[in-house]
Design goal:
- This protein is mainly alpha-helical.
- The protein has one domain: Hydantoin permease (Orthogonal Bundle), CATH 1.10.4160.
- It contains 19 helices and no strands.
- The longest helix is centred in the last third of the chain and has 35 residues.
- It is globular and about 65 Å long.
- It binds phenylalanine (PHE).
- The site of phenylalanine has 15 residues, from helix 1, helix 2, helix 10 and helix 14.
């Protein structure tokens, strides 16, 4: 059945505009800040391999599902889910999936903005020549000075939130397209410059072995869950960001092709980040397990030694902040689109509301790095709890329900119509992956992490022996 709905928020001007915006959403702190440090914490190679498998077998199919739902529903994820569920004869309660996504968006953006603020702060530090000739100890000291100062963190967090809200207020479609078109390739070129430096450090081979030679004895189920959560996060899946961008996608653009393009670009940036950061880690005797501060402790050393360091350093952190910015916009768009649709608010007013809520939540993360660093729940700080809750629980669960809805509850005709890849092998592969593989993977990993799988197998054994 062909559905002709139009979005009240307008459409992307072309397929390319969507690819740019979605890539802008996908490429961000997840690739450059988070991927390297969780890879370091989880032992390298085997973790990277699991991550790549998650991108290919879970990420890409679910991305297609999200874009498909968005384009068919043509509204904010909350209203899209309600409309589609009703249309396909299911409970309107499916809109709860949209609500969960909105909540994830607020929670993630609240700390995303604090980290992005640190990237902003580093533009100034790099440009001022602060990194020239620094040692490892200096680099750690520079980061510690920022992290331990709640007022500085707060100021940068506030600036980043303000920047985000300005774009959101004006509508994500004007301006975003042009900006991403020039700045994304810029980021890629900067990564290649850094790669050149990394190759000259003498620890490049060691870093490549660390990243690409899997040692499965080091892999835990928690690491597998982290890899899976990261696959969702880095592709902006499981919370409606890609769904809402899909709702602005013109009819008759290939969802499969665009999703694969975005996933490949995103993965390239993440792997490049790893290839740049780990040589610096190894040659300077830094700990791969340094955690969230890894990128901020390693790269300044590189910029400090490199010809034109202050310029390249400032440019790099500028591009990183920009990448974070285009992601942040998409984190809040599901909420803003809903406020505009259901409360008749202007985009500007909706943006201010959403921004204010996120800003306040962000205070918790700001403080968890300093004054509240000893305040913990289950041994985790405020930031640690948010990180675990969003990446390891909410995004995978969101993705699971999106997969179930698209593959089991939408009629075959609707999905064939939307995907427009014909009824052939491509479609069957997609349907098989979202019906069985993605949901099973999420469920199995959850069961393992919760320690329930050994229990279940014991029950089975007891029954069948
Ligand atoms: N994908 C973005 C990143 O890697 C973060 C993001 C997650 C954006 C979810 C939107 C939705 O930084």
């Amino acid at each position: 059945m062909t559905v002709r709905r139009t979005s009240m928020h307008g459409e992307w001007s072309s397929r390319m505009a969507f690819i740019l915006a979605a890539t802008g959403s996908a490429v961000g702190l997840g690739n450059i800040w988070r991927f390297p440090y969780i890879t370091g914490e989880n032992g390298g190679g085997a973790f990277v391999l699991v991550y790549l498998l998650c991108i290919a077998l879970i990420g890409v199919p679910i991305m297609m599902a999200e874009v498909l739902l968005g384009r068919r529903g043509r509204q904010s994820p909350i209203n899209t889910m309600r409309t589609l569920a009703t249309e396909e004869g299911h409970s309107p309660l499916w809109q709860l999936l949209g609500w969960a996504g909105v909540i994830s968006g607020f929670l993630i953006l609240s700390f995303y903005s604090v980290i992005a603020g640190q990237a902003l702060a580093y533009i100034v530090r790099a440009a001022g020549g602060l990194f020239t000739g620094i040692t490892v100890a200096d680099s750690k000291q520079i980061y510690a000075a920022l992290e331990s100062d709640p007022e500085r963190l707060l100021a940068w967090h506030t600036l980043f939130m303000a920047m985000t809200m300005v774009v959101v207020a004006r509508g994500v479609k004007s301006g975003l397209e042009q900006a991403v078109r020039f700045l994304m390739p810029g980021l890629l070129i900067m990564m290649l410059v850094l790669l050149g430096y990394a190759m000259s450090t003498g620890a490049f081979a060691q870093a490549m072995r660390f990243l690409f030679r899997p040692d499965f004895t080091a892999l835990t189920w928690n690491a597998v869950l982290t890899a899976m959560g990261q696959a969702f996060f880095t592709l902006s899946l499981g919370m409606g960001a890609i769904m809402v961008y899909g709702s602005y996608l013109p009819k008759r653009t290939s969802i499969a092709q665009t999703s694969i393009t975005i996933a490949v670009a995103d993965t390239m940036v993440a792997l490049l980040a790893g290839m740049v950061i780990f040589p610096i880690v190894f040659i300077n005797g830094l700990e791969p397990t340094a955690g969230p501060s890894l990128v901020f402790k390693t790269l300044p050393i590189a910029f400090g030694q490199m010809w034109g360091g202050p310029f390249f350093g400032a440019l790099f952190f500028l591009l990183l902040s920009f990448a974070a910015w285009t992601s942040a916009i998409s984190l809040i768009e599901p909420a803003v689109a809903w406020m505009v649709e259901n409360h008749g608010m202007s985009r500007a007013k909706a943006a201010v509301w959403a921004g204010a809520i996120t800003w306040v939540l962000g205070l918790g993360t700001v403080l968890s790095f300093n004054l509240w660093s000893e305040v913990t729940l289950f041994g985790k700080t405020f930031f640690g709890v948010l990180d675990y809750l969003t990446f390891n629980v909410m995004l995978p669960l969101g993705g699971l329900f999106i997969a179930v809805f698209a593959a089991w509850l939408m009629s075959r005709r609707s999905t064939v119509d939307e995907l427009a890849i014909g009824d052939g092998l491509g479609y069957e592969t997609w349907r098989f992956l979202v019906r069985f593989i993605s949901p099973a993977a999420v469920i199995i990993v959850f069961l393992y992490v919760l320690g329930l799988l050994p229990l279940i197998s014991k029950v089975f054994e007891a029954i069948f022996t």
